[in-house]
Amino acid sequence: MITLADVFVFVVSPDSAGSRVCDEEIAHARNMGKRIVPVLCRPIDFAKAPPRLAALNVKISFADEARFDASVSELVDAIERDVLWLREATRLAVSAADWRQSARPELPLLHGGEISAAEAWSARRPASAPEVSELVLAYIEASRAGETRRLEKERRSLARQRSLQRWIGGLVLTALVITLAGAGLVVLGQRNLGLSRSQMFALAAQKFYTEEDYVRGLKMSVLAARDNWLSPAVPEAENLLASGALSSSMLADIRTGEDKFLGAWLSSDGRRVLTWGESGAAQLWDAETGAAIGKPMRHPRVQGADGPADAAIFAARVTQASGA
Questions:
Q1: How many whole angstroms separate alpha carbon 248 and alpha carbon 264?
Q2: Which of 40, 41, 140, 323 is deepest in the core (most CB within 10 A)?
Q3: How far is the C-alpha of 295 from the C-alpha of 256, rounded, in Å?
Q4: Measured on CA atoms in the order 254, 256, 257, 260, is the torsion positive or negative?
Q5: Using CA of residue 247, residue 248, residue 252, residue 258, what is the dihedral sign?
Q6: Residue-level pLDDT at 133
Q7: DSSP string covering 247-300, please?
Q8: Confidence category of residue 308, pLDDT binned at 50, 70, 90
Q9: Is pLDDT of 185 > 80?
């Protein structure tokens, strides 16, 4: 109850002056930093009083019944003086007592702004208030030290987290670089494979043309000339398709009547080949099988020219006419 009290009122009488328990209560109130307001109930011999009681400055007396009302007013004024500061002292004293008795003294400590508020409270102690108890001062100091350790621990933890994030970021970046490098190697390997494939078909086409096997040569030229980003064609494949077949004046199996062979055009999907001759006759062929598609057709603008003015449009007409 003394710990929870804002002000400790001690009633002085011959009985309390001779009580060991009352003397210990005065000592406990002083240790807790309580304001002690002594009031005289019955006269005593202060020269024979215990030292703690004799040290109290007794100013309020109820021994004179004529001054009873005045003494009550003096007691009320003494209790209410600096009451807010005293109530904060009580709160801190209770917390300090819990801290001293706790099995885990770090739990009841003050944190953050509470420490600064407690330090400011101690600094503005009123002149009429008792000295802040050693226990409360130790409690505030322990709270400040604990807060410093906590902040330092958080700082180290944050530094470790940042270091870990940088380390993970480095790993991710390294993995990304390795992945991109691997992807680049895969793409490069795929393109090299495509070039090799195109080169192989081009050599085969050249061989068939040399042997005057024009159907197979044209088929190999079509395969060699197929070009995309991952599987590019070698330049000679395009030359074989565009002009390799023209090295012979006549085609053996792919022919446009009996007139001289002038040129060939490959559809965008690589599935059809259009050939034409001097007379203007044109024939559509299946690039995979070498089989003729539909019947030969004649385009007026082909005759006497190097080739159709628009082979793609003409090929579409031949395709439509042949039903292919």
A1: 13
A2: 140
A3: 10
A4: negative
A5: positive
A6: 86
A7: GSSS-SSS-STTSPEEEEEE-TTSSEEEEEETTSEEEEEETTT--EEEEEEE-T
A8: very low
A9: yes
SS3 60: strand
Asked if pLDDT for residue 219 goes beyond 60, the answer is yes
Whether 67 and 61 have beta carbons less than 8 Å apart is answered as yes
117-143: average pLDDT: 87
223, 234 contact by CB (below 8 A): no
Contact indicator for 108, 118 with CB cutoff of 8 Å: no
- Structure tokens that stand for 50 in this block: 């215990």
The CA distances from residue 7 to 12, 37, 72, 83, 117, in Å, are 16, 7, 15, 9, 21
The pTM score is 0.44
Q: For the chain, how far is it from start to end, CA to CA, in angstroms? A: 108
Residue 275 near residue 263, CB atoms below 8 Å: yes
Contacts of 88 (CB under 8 A, 6+ apart): 121
Mean pLDDT of the chain: 80
- Distance, in Å, from the CA atom of 175 to the CA atom of 126, rounded to the nearest integer, reads 67
The tens digit of pLDDT for each residue in 246-277 reads 444 334 344 444 555 566 676 767 677 777 76
Residues, the chain = 324
> Residue 212: is its pLDDT beyond 80?
no
Q: Count other C-beta atoms under 10 Å from residue 255's C-beta.
A: 18
Structure tokens at 185: 């190697």
Distance CA 320, CA 295 (A): 11
Q: Tell me the Cα Rg of the chain.
A: 55
Decide: helix, strand or coil at residue 37: strand
